[in-house]
Specification:
This protein is mainly beta and 116 residues long. The protein has a 3-stranded antiparallel sheet with strand order 1-3-2. The longest helix is centred in the middle third of the chain and has 13 residues.
Length: 116
């Protein structure tokens, strides 16, 4: 089993929750980052200054590999972080890809999707 932390479209009820639906929900945790809207999904950049809610799940090895392929293919990088729910892999935006796009729509919310 693998533990992952999600903040965007993999969260329960969102369009990519196929990746976490069959996993074991371990709870909500907080992490630091800078989150940007890319339209229908966010990207969180590492070493940010804002606190965001993340969902932590335990998923099968097969599901982890599918999620990993999707996230890496979309320009994210996998990093292990410590959370209040234990160590987990989170997928941050790869700075080489996302800073080139000019991330100008910084979200001032602590969750995705944003609630206005």
């Amino acid at each position: 089993m693998n533990t992952i932390a999600v903040y965007g479209s993999l969260k329960k009820g969102l369009h990519n929750d196929w990746g976490t639906r069959d996993g074991k929900f371990l709870g909500i945790a907080l992490t630091l980052g800078d989150m940007y809207s890319l339209g229908g999904y966010p990207v969180m950049m590492e070493n940010g200054t804002k606190e965001y809610e993340i969902e932590v799940y335990e998923v099968s090895e097969e599901m982890y590999k599918q999620i990993h392929r999707m996230e890496i293919g979309a320009g994210y990088i996998a990093k292990e972080i410590s959370t209040s729910r234990g160590k987990a892999t989170i997928f941050y935006g790869n700075p080489e890809r996302f800073t080139k796009q000019g991330l100008s729509n910084l979200l001032a919310v602590n969750e995705w999707p944003p609630k206005y």
